[in-house]
């Protein structure tokens, strides 16, 4: 396993990391979480991603129990604050919710600090200045070590950097966008000016486009798949036009390449992301230890992705942002 | 109930909120406070206003007991510091009194932090810079989330904003002025430049002009009314010339409009304030659960205040600041 | 008793205050300290001055015991850091000694914070920038509310203000110089530009020039006087040329004025200082309750110091700094 | 013993100090550490140098036990953070490792704060801005009093100073370079512009070039010498070309000078460093109390190093950086 800086930040994250979204507290109980994390850790994963919203906090509670077995310094633990409940102040990244949110997350995680804290979404009802001040507060009070955003626009990030620079506050270190073979605009185009200028790091999610890039929907959606279970996921995919026959056709063609390389389609899809030097880590959403093991092997597949193979993939995808 | 941002700040307050001034610890005992707050909460009120000066701290102690039944994140609790006792350093917003004041308020409220802390008045004996530094300290130490002022002038607020900007300190978020049909100068004229420029929010008090706008003094001051009980209130009203026969005449004419809309005079008076987009929340001073319920219904009356009705009211009031 | 701002700072100090130098732990034991402070407090004194160096910390321990009887908010307690022991790092106002010094002082005083902390002297071995950063740290950590200096030059203070302004640090609020009828240069000339420009406040010590201005040395030094007991005091007076026959002659002439006003010489000397608007408080060093009472009456004598009387005094003193 | 400022910083360190590298936890057990430190302390040494890396933390644990016998204010204790373990985030001076490192070091040392914290090496994988922000955090949270670097280049230090100045952060106070008769470039040339401009202090290590300057390798490497025990040391010396016959020849000639002055070769080597006004303290690595005593006497030898003797030494060394 390779460990990358988070953008220019000094902290190191494994190039493949384990997310808890949809799995911890949904598909996985206490024992399942422990086993999946243990497998991930033993295969070199050090970054475990979480959020207050995942399973309404249960995901953090389960991770909190599981990480007691580890040396704190060996782990990079994150949370994301935005959806903390149903009250008027449980939503967004106001100073009130950021602070109340992180205080509650740390209790569930049974930690003194997380390594990474994210604004889980942009919040049009809170000035970015308030958020940057609050994040600086959170770090200076030792509740988190680095802060970042998720699904923010380049413009919003620019504003955050400008304010941090003007006010001598700690700037963001990372963004968590969706990124995979079918969703490329933000990472490959919109964010381009930010990598060099600010050293922005990326912790990307949904590497398999909710399973689409495993090839398992090539012949329709199986009954016990995650897509069948979480209606919202499917709605999202359809809304974004990802579940098109054109895309499924592409997956079929990509599967052949994977096969030629002795890899699964999922491994190829992850390895393809690993080739992007702006990606610090790819968050996988494995629900079983075996899945972790399979996904981690993508790091080996990466070495097989020569320039020629990458070109062949590009030709199939035919969606490079201009 | 609608929840508004506090000016541009990310925190959300119910458009009607419950104050404890003159009621908690005076007209209301422990049980009365609990019932009134419960009724308010159940009707959507999330902001409960307080001050160290109210009933000499007893108002905070009573609220402190009452809020134990709630989830902290669901509440927006304020206090105001200025009158903390009889000693030379118990008055004003020096660093000494602001810190000693908030430490004591938090003990009475049994809280780790309030959401909002106000300078209860301008303090000509303390440089505004000292106050802004101290408020920044209070927020950075987690004793409060947002700070503001009460009954400050636009000029004083401008100075506070300028210092905060220069020193990279956290700026004020809100002002608490008196505002009602008969007291309009500050909110509608003096503060106008501040709303856009700094995103100043307003938590207005005395919506009924100490009862005058309920119509209950139309035929003289009843014996057990708040005005009869608190001599200072009546003195204030008289000093400001509010208890004039001209004003009582206006109330009589406004009462007819209220009646036509199927509303009480108090509801009309509150609804009229709610129409002002610069007002984040109207603090009511209910002393009984039924009063809370009556006042909250002003949110419905607001929808009936068409442009025509507003014009009719303006014609009666005939006091629009130019 | 009048309460003055400390320069422009918002904190209020009684115009006469009680010092512990040479008395607490030397002339006064636990009971004596308690009685003297009680008398002072009952006559309106709220500021009690101390230093880590006084009686090697015993003065702070005694005051710490005595102030348990009071409401903390009613007191203004100071300490001064500079001479903390015999080790290489016990001297001066380095960050190391300032922090270790205040931590130890607070333990002896049994307090969470002092109101005022002074650099007891300038420290040529420590950059003023380090001292200003450390003082800002001390205030932002809640260990003290205001900071100042003692016996610094105007140039050193200017540098401190400049650094605080540049770095957005909390500036000094007060200086503690010697000031009396015979020592006038610093307060009346050197510091003049600082009062207006920075709002510097003064807590002056040695109002009676170590007893010289009581008139009790008019006929030589009595055996049980403080001057006889503390050899250093006498050396200082002689070094500064204060114990001259010329000065004693002046005291004799001033005593007549005092007598004409129905005041003691000491009261006249203190009242004369109170007339200076730049002096926030005059620290007296009473060793008996009766002395406190006598000194406090200087506030009444002050009202008798008409322009004519002041001119008469000036003519006798004949030492106005130009 | 003379006590020097650490560059311009106000803290005072004995001109000779005791390091724990290679000795504490290796050659010295609990009792040995206590005795060596006691001897050092009794001979005027107040600065005891340590690092998380020394004996994998055992050196800190041993020092932590030994210093319980002393008054905290009498000691200057350091640690250095860089090598904290084997995990991806245990290396370097990222915010994560600096904070986790100092938290762990303080536990082992059983202290609330160290006096000095060093970045044990430059870390090309962490932006210097992140390190400066983290060091400022560490000092403002009371975990250390001063921060510095070890084996950084002048260019890296310049960048740290520039960032601290721009962001109003606490700048570094000291560097810990290797410095002795055979390793002079950094201290005598590269750092020259920094002493005046920033007041950089030096705590130099390896005064005897790993024993070479004791003369004990003049006839080959004895079996139980430190060089024989720690292979890395010998490798380093050889890599740097220090163990050359030319150098051994120089040591032989220098030994004669030492002899003429009634000093040992080691004393001469240390005294020669003490003559450099930019050196705040020379860290010795004594493994026995007698060695401490011998080394400390270098302070007396220093007085014998007249201009003539220094010239004679320079002629022998013939390695002055130009």
Automatic annotation (TrEMBL), chains A, B, C, D:
<dbReference type="GO" id="GO:0016491">
    <property type="term" value="F:oxidoreductase activity"/>
</dbReference>
<keyword id="KW-0813">Transport</keyword>
<keyword id="KW-0521">NADP</keyword>
<keyword id="KW-0407">Ion channel</keyword>
<dbReference type="GO" id="GO:0034220">
    <property type="term" value="P:monoatomic ion transmembrane transport"/>
</dbReference>
<dbReference type="InterPro" id="IPR036812">
    <property type="entry name" value="NAD(P)_OxRdtase_dom_sf"/>
</dbReference>
<dbReference type="Pfam" id="PF00248">
    <property type="entry name" value="Aldo_ket_red"/>
</dbReference>
<dbReference type="InterPro" id="IPR023210">
    <property type="entry name" value="NADP_OxRdtase_dom"/>
</dbReference>
<keyword id="KW-0406">Ion transport</keyword>
<feature type="domain" description="NADP-dependent oxidoreductase">
    <location>
        <begin position="15"/>
        <end position="317"/>
    </location>
</feature>
<keyword id="KW-0560">Oxidoreductase</keyword>
<protein>
    <submittedName>
        <fullName>Putative voltage-dependent potassium channel subunit beta</fullName>
    </submittedName>
</protein>
<comment type="similarity">
    <text>Belongs to the shaker potassium channel beta subunit family.</text>
</comment>
<dbReference type="InterPro" id="IPR005399">
    <property type="entry name" value="K_chnl_volt-dep_bsu_KCNAB-rel"/>
</dbReference>
């Amino acid at each position: 396993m390779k460990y990358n800086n988070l953008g220019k930040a000094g902290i190191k994250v494994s190039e493949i990391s384990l997310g808890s979204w949809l799995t911890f507290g949904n598909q996985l109980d206490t024992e399942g979480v422990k086993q999946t994390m243990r497998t991930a850790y033993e295969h070199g994963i050090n970054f475990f991603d979480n959020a207050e919203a995942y399973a309404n906090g249960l995901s953090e509670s389960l991770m909190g129990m599981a990480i007691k077995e580890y040396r704190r310094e060996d782990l990079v633990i994150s949370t994301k604050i935005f959806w903390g409940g149903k009250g008027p102040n449980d939503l967004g990244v106001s100073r009130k919710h950021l602070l109340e949110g992180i205080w509650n997350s740390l209790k569930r995680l049974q930690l003194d600090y997380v390594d990474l804290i994210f604004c889980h979404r942009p919040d049009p009802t809170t000035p970015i200045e308030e958020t940057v001040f609050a994040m600086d507060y959170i770090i200076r009070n030792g509740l988190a070590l680095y802060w970042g955003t998720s699904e923010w626009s380049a413009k919003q990030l620019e504003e955050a950097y400008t304010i941090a620079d003007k006010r001598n506050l700690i700037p963001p270190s990372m963004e968590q966008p969706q990124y995979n073979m079918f969703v490329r605009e933000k990472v490959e185009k919109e964010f381009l000016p930010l990598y060099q200028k600010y050293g922005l790091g990326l912790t990307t999610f949904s590497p398999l486009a909710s399973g689409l890039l495993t090839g398992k929907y090539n012949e329709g959606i199986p009954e016990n798949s995650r897509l069948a279970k979480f209606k919202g996921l499917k709605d999202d995919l359809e809304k974004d036009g990802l579940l098109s026959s054109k895309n499924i056709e592409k997956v079929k063609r990509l599967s052949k390449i994977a096969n030629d390389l002795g890899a699964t389609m999922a491994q190829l899809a992850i390895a393809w992301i690993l080739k992007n030097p702006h990606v610090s880590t790819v968050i996988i959403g494995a629900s079983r230890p075996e899945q972790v093991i399979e996904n981690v092997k993508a790091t080996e597949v990466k070495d097989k992705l020569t320039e020629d193979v990458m070109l062949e993939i590009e030709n199939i995808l035919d969606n490079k942002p201009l």
